[in-house]
Amino acid sequence: MSATPHDIPRHGYDMSGSLWMRLVDASSMSVFFFFEYLLARDVYLHIDAAPAGLASWLLPLALLLGYLTADFVSGFVHFLADNIGSTRTPFFGPVFIRPFREHHVDPLAITRHDFLEVNGANCLISLPVLIGTWYFVPIHGTASLFFAAYIGLFLFGIFLTNQFHSWAHNPSPPAWIRRLQRTGLILGPEHHARHHTPPFNTYYCITSGWLNPILARTRLFERMKEPLRRVLEPLAGKADEVGGVQE
Q1: What backbone torsions phi and psi does residue 66 show, to the nearest 5 degrees?
Q2: How high is the pLDDT of residue 244?
Q3: What's the rounded Cα separation, in Å, for the pair 242 and 247?
Q4: End-to-end CA distance of the chain
Q5: CA-based max dimension of the chain
C-alpha cells in the first residue's frame, strides 16, 4: 500500500521548520544575495572589457547557457536525491534528500513551506561557487566577463529552481505565474506531471524543464544510476523509502 502524507513520521532527523534551520536558511539567503549583487556590479562596471559590439550578444548568451545549466543541474540533483542516499544521513539527509522523497508521497508538501524554507537550501549550496567566482576570478577581459555573468545567472537560476517547482505543484498559483508556465519559460504543472507518473524515473529537471525530453530520450540519468550508486551509497547511505517511512 502506498504511503500517505499522514504516514510520514517526524523523526529527529527532520529539521524542517526548526529555529536552527531557519537561521541557516536566512543567513544563506542574505549572503547569497549580497554576493550576487557584488558579482552583478562587477559585470556591469566591466562591461567595456568586451570589444565593441560583443557585449550585445555576450550577456544574452551567458543568460541562456546559465539557465540551461541550472535546468540540467536541477535534474541531476533531483535524480540523485530521489534515488541515492538516506534521509537519515547527517545534514544532507534532512536538508536535501528528505524534501524530494517527501514530495512524491505528498506532492503539495512543498507548497506549504514558506519562501525562506523553499529556497534557503539552494542558496547555501551555491555559496562556495558564488564566493569563489567573485573572489578568485576578477574580471579583466572578455573571457572572465562572460564567466562571471554565466556563473551569476546560472546560480540565480538555481536559486529560482525550488520556487518554480513549488509553483508547478500549487493548484492555484497567481495568474502571472500561470502565464509564465504556459509560455514554457518556467516549469509548468503539465510538464512536471510526467515526473509524477509511474515509474517516476524521468523528467527530473525542474527549473524550466527544457532539457527533459532530450534526457528522457537518451536515458542519461538512468544509465548513470548504478555507477553513481556504487560510489555514493557508502557515503550517503542506502536509499530508504519515500518520506523515510521504511528503511
Answers
A1: -65, -40
A2: 38
A3: 10
A4: 16
A5: 64
Q: Contact at 8 Å (CB) between 161 and 210?
A: no
The three cell numbers of residue 29 are 539567503
Cell of 67: 539557465
- H or E segment to which residue 1 belongs: none
d(Cα 47, Cα 62) in Å, to the nearest integer?
Answer: 13
> pLDDT tens digit string along 102-154?
778 888 888 988 999 999 999 999 999 999 999 999 999 999 999 999 999 99
Q: What angle do CA 70, 73, 78 make, to 5 degrees?
A: 125
Q: Given a cut of 90, is residue 2 above it in pLDDT?
A: no
CA–CA dist 46, 8 (Å, integer): 51
What was the pLDDT predicted at 17?
A: 60
227 cis-preceded (ω within 30 degrees of 0)? no
CA atoms within 13 A on the CB side of 186: 20
Task: Read off φ and ψ for residue 138, nearest 5 degrees.
Answer: -65, 150
- The CA-atom distances, in angstroms, between 16 and each of 20, 118, 197 are 10, 10, 26
As a residue count, the chain comes to 247
Contact assessment for residue 89 and residue 97, using Cβ atoms and an 8 Å cutoff: yes
Amino acid in the structure at residue 79 = F
Closest CA to 188 of 163, 160, 209: 209
CA distance 213 to 210: 7
Share in percent of the chain as helix, strand, coil (round to 5): 70, 0, 30
The model carries a pTM of 0.86
